[in-house]
Specification:
elongated; 35% strand; two-stranded antiparallel sheet; 171 residues
Amino acid sequence: MGENIYHARLMFARPFIDSLEFAKNGKELCGEISLIDLPRLSDMLINSEGSLTYRVIGSQEGDSHKLEITLNGKCNLRCQRCLEELPYPLDISAHLQLLTAEMLEEIEDEGSIEDAIEASRHLDVLELIEDEVLLNLPFAPRHPEGTCAAPIKDLRQKDNPFAILAALKKQ
Ligand SMILES: [Zn+2]
């Protein structure tokens, strides 16, 4: 292993890999990213606090080339019920097969396999990580039932049918 391990220092360089070469040689890349460096993810969060550690390991079995991605960290989503902060753990592991564009197209036509990406000589590792995180976020995050921090304040004034009735009677 030894020399095949790179620690990416993102303050200096955004990591790119030659994905097939990376897989063939069983390389490994790990590091830490601030969530603020993942803009598409940041858009989904209540704030960009926190960071994510990642590890990408390449492997080859016969003709098949893979990247194994492990992500750990947490982010703060917005609860869709109370709109307050919802801490959400990110513990993700994914195995992605590297395919040529033609192979990928064939598979897409068959409507199968989401765990494949196009092999690239200049694969943007952060982009890949961000895609994986986005795929793993809940569609409508909510605190568990009954644990929302703030009660829904507006209900009484605006949407309560009795309040609306009372207003109508006054007319
Ligand atoms: Zn809530």
